[in-house]
Design goal:
The protein is α/β, with parallel strands linked by helices. It has helices spanning 9-14, 48-62, 144-150, 163-176, 193-206; strands at 20-21, 24-31, 68-74, 120-124, 155-161, 180-189, 209-210.
């Protein structure tokens, strides 16, 4: 009988747990890759569908780099303005059209994102405005920071939608929580070019790596 472990090949080949290289443990955070934030959705971003497909390709090529893969979703309450987040005349800064209502097609992950590869799902914005994935929690009530620390994560790659809103907020909060953060800009899409540029500048100034 072979002595080779019966689990995934990563640990056998490199003699380290998957996603743990050189003493560091890296996770991937996929922010809000949902139908309402991609083409045809309530708050579409240009290139959102391509981002979904690109993240799936990234995971196919680099999935073993990550100890854990997390995906967040806006998951707003129905029949509520969610703390003023929804407004019939939104200013698109602090208030928005209705989007990503829990259980609706708009809140579903984009079909080009392979969610079979996701280990943890985080829900945010239930009854209140929420941009950062670090404001959310799993269905079991574990916050994102708790989940990452429980798994020994110290480095975090951030991708998803939108660069200038929820990706920005999530990356900044991750940095404040003490994680070493990298935003993979080619796997994000933004609301507008100007606010995207400002967000990336802010992230770099805060100490987040942008690639």
């Amino acid at each position: 009988m072979s002595d080779e472990p019966s689990g995934g090949g990563c640990a056998w080949l490199i003699q380290e747990p998957c996603g743990r290289l050189g003493g560091m443990s890296r996770a991937l955070l996929i922010v809000d890759v949902q139908n309402d934030f991609t083409e045809g959705g309530a708050l579409e971003t240009a290139g959102g569908a391509a981002v979904a497909a690109g993240i799936t390709e990234h995971l196919a090529d680099n999935g073993e780099d990550y100890a854990v893969i997390v995906a967040s979703r806006d998951w707003h309450d129905a029949d509520s303005d969610n703390g003023g987040h929804f407004h019939p005349q939104p200013d698109f800064v602090d208030s928005w059209p209705e989007h990503c209502v829990a259980g609706t097609p708009g809140a579903d992950y984009h079909p080009a994102l392979d969610t079979q590869l996701v280990d943890l799902h985080v829900f945010k914005g239930q009854g209140s405005p929420s941009y950062s994935a670090f404001d959310g929690a799993t269905a079991e009530g574990e916050t994102l920071a708790e989940a990452l620390r429980a798994r020994g994560v110290d480095h975090l790659d951030v991708v998803g939608i939108a660069t200038d809103h929820c990706v920005r907020a999530s990356a900044l909060d991750a940095h404040r929580e003490g994680f070493t953060v990298r935003v993979i800009d080619g796997l994000t899409s933004a609301v507008a070019p100007e606010s995207r540029a400002a967000a990336l500048e802010e992230l770099r100034a805060a100490g987040v790596t942008v690639e």
